[in-house]
Amino acid sequence: MTEVVLYDTTLRDGTQGEGISFSVEDKLKIVRRLDRLGIPYVEGGWPGSNPKDMEFFQRVKDLPLRQAKVTAFCSTRRANITPAEDRNLQAVIESGVKTCALFGKSWDFHVTNALCTTLEENLKMIEESVAYLKAQGLEVFYDAEHFFDGYTHNPEYALATLQAASRGGADVLVLCDTNGGRLPHEVAQIVGEIKSKIDKPLGIHAHNDSGVAVANTLAAVREGVRHVQGTINGYGERAGNADLCSIIPNLQLKMGFTCVSDEELRQLTGVARYVSELANLSLPWNQPFVGKSVFAHKGGIHVSALMRHPETYEHIKPEQVGNRRRVLISELSGGSNVLYKSQEYDLDIDELGMRRIVETIKDLEYQGYSFEGAEGSFELMLRKSLGLHEKFFDFEGFRLIIEKKEANGEPVAEASIKLRVQDRVLHTVAEGNGPVNALDKALRKALEEVYPHLRDIHLTDYKVRVINEKAGTGAKVRVLIESQDGRSSWGSVGVSTNIIEASWQALVDSIEYGLARAGQTRGEA
């Protein structure tokens, strides 16, 4: 299998995306994960451009990397000076890296209007800068900025910039669709023409402004490109960069190229989610290959076929990229969905029980429930229907008081709860910054002594949705709660015309499901 060399620029180009900023610690952590993923080149930033990148390049030297080479990014020398006089080039050398991505102008329009220099001087800037870095012993990837636009407007000059970089000794000529405006057929045609004119390894660096950065990258590889640049999750300026999380599996599983090992490929989903966490961004649920929902199935007919032959509705095995298959429960579910979930929970259910559960689901969803994000509530319902659920406590009542003492002050909520665990009556009071928070605190206060594992269960998300908005203040609401205990997470749901009651239902399901998962039994303490 032919190898395609991967070059990750998440830590430099990715950080140009709106809302993305990595600390030095974040960048070092990402380098380690990309190294384990099998990425050969990781671009760390622009040495000397800011204190953060300067610290990064100092500290990254101490990382015990298995294979990844950390690279620097830099521009060609400024006009009318020598490379030795250029502070940016000197900063690259002083950083201690062995590889540099050096970018220069390919589009004559940019040379005269952005650099404000002559076309001939720009060619000298490219050749001399590449030659200078090569003389210092560096591997040089020449990033031909705006190459596809430049070639479209003035092919002779764009080609001349590549020839200048080649004369300087560039190891790879990277063709950049910097504005992200080219389409796959244009990229394929231009790459084919360049391959016939220049005998140097070619690379591709695509942006996603037209929504085809991945397609453009794959088209370039089909035409002979063997160096591919991109970012994890497609992070980058404007609409982002080509997404390595789509490029890698497409090249490896669909097109027959080698990028990483099969074992490394199975880390892909974990890496995508790890980087999104450090970026403080939610990973899109429908992101190809690595999103939470891309191997999720809802329709009963689909699930029935999937259980016999997964390839009927899955283009690859989710495990190949470290993702997993999920079967959703909704009013669209058939018996196959319930059967699949019961097997997942290691429960035996007969045909009659399965049909009864399907009808219950449809009735509850008609009332406003949704189990797609509340699998904890669904599993509890399934176990209750089979007589396999043991209640952890009996509810005897709660009272809520909301008090506001000053016009500009915040209200304070107080919850009083009475529960029974076997022969013990538990009566507790707690304050919170709202009625739901007060209920949650009072419930935990009552039960933690009996069920110590409850101390590990935390509410991580709370969502309220109005179901029938036209009913105004009398509308039904659906409350979804996400909880986790450090080992796993689960959702629970409640529905009522009273937001407190809906929240109570979801809270109780969350706690009972968490305790059941932990293997605690009624009145264990």
Summary?
With 525 residues, this protein is α/β, with parallel strands linked by helices. The protein has helices at 24-37, 51-59, 87-95, 108-115, 119-135, 147-153, 155-168, 184-197, 213-222, 244-254, 262-265, 268-278, 300-308, 335-344, 351-367, 375-385, 435-447, 499-517, and strands at residues 5-8, 41-45, 69-75, 99-105, 139-145, 172-177, 202-206, 227-230, 296-297, 326-327, 394-403, 412-421, 424-432, 458-466, 477-484, 489-496.
Notes on the protein architecture:
This protein is an alpha/beta fold. It is built from 18 helices and 16 strands. It has helices at residues 24-37, 51-59, 87-95, 108-115, 119-135, 147-153, 155-168, 184-197, 213-222, 244-254, 262-265, 268-278, 300-308, 335-344, 351-367, 375-385, 435-447, 499-517, and strands at residues 5-8, 41-45, 69-75, 99-105, 139-145, 172-177, 202-206, 227-230, 296-297, 326-327, 394-403, 412-421, 424-432, 458-466, 477-484, 489-496. The strands form four sheets. An eight-stranded parallel β-barrel has the order 1-2-3-4-5-6-7-8, surrounded by nine helices. It is elongated and about 90 Å long.
